[in-house]
UniProtKB/TrEMBL annotation:
Transmembrane segments: none annotated. Keywords: Glycosidase, Hydrolase. GO terms for molecular function: hydrolase activity, acting on glycosyl bonds. Residues 130-162, 288-307 are annotated as: Disordered. This is Phosphodiester glycosidase family protein. It comes from Pseudonocardia nematodicida. The lineage of its organism: Bacteria, Bacillati, Actinomycetota, Actinomycetes, Pseudonocardiales.
Length: 405
């Protein structure tokens, strides 16, 4: 269990506090949580430092850093809270120009002019670099989930590959599950499509690749549903569709897909089904991500739910301790972005259970685990506010950002 929490004061706020009361504020904490009580010292400090009292207009996006005690030692937590009820901001999925195009979180945030951003979903590191789960940007589906055994993430009881943190057009965040609904039709032939711009097409299936994908399509037909290093499917084929008709039938390749083209790539039984198509055959392709909630997402990022209804998911791991990134939301619609530093003598990292508890402590009722380890990066007002565990900021395919409307 997490012990007493100490708050750290940094930067201009710490200097202002120091000037106001004529004492030194330690660089690594020392302001006790009990000071939050009405009429106690923070009120005096705030008055001297020019901080806006809570009853006045609060900023739409705030950041705080805390030091907490865990059984493994102290951990540094950074928390950003964004009030999505405010008309001036919204949540957005930050990506490159195509699926799998990576950038550091500061780069993603800078390009979008984001107030804050945290790294997003787990991804196919050092291969396609594509995210493992569904993703939606500006209401448009970018990716669907890979098979469960190909998601490179710690298992969470009850989670499914289609799980996401989603935000609808009204700014309401929710946990949801997005399922790909996609078919290719040619005459009386209806071919089910199993994945959208995914780095792993299920054994025997057909995957759809759009101009949002510029990577290796052949590699998506390799491995098994549980082993990324299994051999490639012996039978692989792709069909190019443009203007509602087949334009080419060929071995699967890679590289950018021109605007107006879509490519169906099949393996095993999926390849055999595609082989019935010939150049000139009419083909209609329909696809979408169907939300379990019934609310179409404007923004969605893949993640495993670890907090539901204000309680950690039963059985969530309480052993492995790592740097963590997570996101959740309050009952009032505030979005919470959280990181925990780890793999350092000064910060031991969190377990998934502790991560859920920290989300709850920050006010969340529901939340998801995002990619962690060397990917964990949180940006606020153009600055990386946590301490990533790698020597350099890791490029990632997507980030969850808070941007101006």
């Amino acid at each position: 269990m997490v012990g007493r929490v100490r708050y750290r004061l940094t930067g201009r706020t710490a200097l202002a506090f120091t000037a106001a009361i004529g004492v030194l504020v330690p660089a690594h904490g020392g302001v006790d949580a009990r000071w939050n009580a009405p009429g106690t010292l923070p009120g005096v400090l705030a008055a001297h430092a020019g901080i806006v009292p809570a009853q006045q207009a609060a900023p739409a996006v705030t950041h705080r850093e805390e030091r907490i005690d865990t059984p493994a030692g102290p951990v540094t937590i950074d928390v950003v809270v964004a009030d999505l009820n405010r008309s001036e901001i919204r949540a957005d999925l930050l990506t490159g120009g195509v699926v799998g195009e990576r950038a550091t979180v500061p780069e993603h945030a800078d390009r979008a002019g984001a107030h804050a951003a945290v790294n997003g979903d787990f991804f196919d590191l050092a291969r396609s670099n594509a995210p493992a789960g569904p993703s939606v940007r500006d209401g448009r589906p970018l990716t669907s989930a890979v098979p469960p055994g190909r998601r490179l993430a710690p298992p969470v009881p009850g989670s499914e590959p289609g799980d996401v943190l989603a935000v609808d057009a009204s700014g309401t965040p929710r946990l949801d599950r997005l399922t790909l609904d996609a078919v290719a039709e040619s005459g009386k032939t209806v071919l089910p499509i199993r994945t959208l711009n995914a780095y792993a097409v299920p054994v025997g299936g057909i995957g759809l690749f759009t101009p949002d994908w510029a990577g290796d399509r052949n590699a998506a037909l390799c491995g098994s549903d549980v082993d990324r290093d299994a051999p490639c499917a012996p039978d692989r084929l792709e069909v190019v569709v443009a203007d509602g008709a087949v334009t080419d039938v060929r071995p699967p390749g890679g590289g950018p897909i021109p605007p107006g083209q879509q490519i169906l790539a099949g393996r095993d039984e999926g390849a055999a089904a595609l082989r019935a198509l010939e150049p000139g055959d009419p083909v209609g392709i329909r696809y979408g991500l169907t939300p379990e909630s019934g609310a179409d997402p404007e923004t969605a990022v893949g993640g495993s739910p670890i907090l539901r209804g204000g309680e950690p998911v039963p059985g969530v791991d309480a052993g492995a301790r790592e740097p963590r990134s997570a996101a959740g939301f309050t009952g009032e619609g505030r979005l919470i972005l959280l990181t925990a530093d780890g793999r350092a003598s000064t910060s031991a990292g969190l377990t998934l259970l502790e991560t859920a508890e920290q989300l709850r402590r920050a006010g969340a009722v529901d939340g998801v685990n995002l990619d962690g380890g060397g990917s964990s990066t949180l940006v606020h007002r153009g600055q990386v506010v946590n301490a990533p565990s790698g020597e350099a900021h890791r490029p990632v395919p997507n980030a969850l950002g808070i941007v101006a409307n």
